[in-house]
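dumping this here so i dont lose it
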């Protein structure tokens, strides 16, 4: 019917645009051929090429992949956090169970609320706490606390590897040396004179009276603190390598 109307008006369409122009000039016939008009609109919305659509789907696939990788990293972080919280809670329960038959461990648990949060991540914060150990109440809370966490440790090396990082983190360890000896011509604080270390040293000597001497403890302290920058650097390299690997995977489009 639409073609008949156009022929009566002397129009012979050779393209879609000819039909569109005719409809614009003769709007009275739009109501006569509504289905034909709908068909023309549909033809005008069909893309002439699929290249643009394919590019859009390619970009969308890449964005989805990046989002999934970012989500995986967040989930891994949540998983580690949950595992750490569960492990920490499990350790607290174990300590409470062990303390049932150990008056000294029970005392440590009772006085734990007096102590601040550990490990110390700031040098001045640790110094302030160390001075607080001159207070008998703080001292009597800290010593059972160290004794509690070293209760199952059987040798000096394991005690150092567990207790020192529990008190101060790597950043603070890097600012200390065993006996105020400079490291790479950089002056550092003397950890052997801190009240925290003296308490720790006393406990180690009590636990291993026949196998460990003061000289052994001092040697281990010097070696451990001198290696703190190397351990920090290794951890940073591992973290950077993992981060760069994830970024390379994220920007690679299959």
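and the seq i came up w/
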């Amino acid at each position: 019917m639409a073609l008949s109307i156009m022929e009566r008006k002397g129009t012979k369409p050779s393209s879609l645009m000819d039909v569109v122009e005719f409809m614009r000039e003769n709007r009275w016939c739009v109501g006569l051929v509504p289905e034909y008009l709908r068909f023309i609109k549909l033809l005008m919305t069909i893309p002439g090429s699929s290249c643009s659509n394919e590019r859009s789907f390619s970009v969308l696939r890449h964005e989805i992949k990046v989002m999934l990788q970012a989500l995986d990293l967040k989930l891994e972080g949540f998983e580690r956090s949950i595992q750490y919280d569960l492990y920490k809670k499990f350790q607290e329960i174990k300590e409470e169970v062990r303390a049932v038959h150990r008056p000294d461990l029970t005392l440590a648990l009772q006085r734990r609320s007096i102590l601040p949060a550990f490990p110390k991540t700031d040098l001045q914060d640790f110094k302030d706490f160390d001075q607080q150990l001159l207070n008998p109440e703080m001292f009597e809370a800290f010593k059972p606390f160290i004794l509690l966490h070293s209760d199952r440790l059987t040798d000096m090396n394991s005690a150092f590897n567990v207790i020192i990082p529990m008190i101060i983190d790597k950043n603070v360890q890097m600012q200390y040396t065993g006996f105020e000896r400079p490291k790479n011509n950089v002056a550092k604080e003397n950890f052997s004179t801190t009240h925290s270390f003296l308490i720790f040293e006393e406990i180690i000597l009590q636990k291993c009276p026949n196998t460990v001497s003061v000289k052994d403890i001092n040697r281990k302290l010097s070696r451990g603190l001198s290696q703190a920058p190397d351990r920090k650097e290794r951890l940073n390299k591992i973290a950077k390598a993992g981060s760069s690997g994830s970024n390379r995977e994220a920007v690679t489009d299959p």
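The beta strands are 176-177, 189-190.
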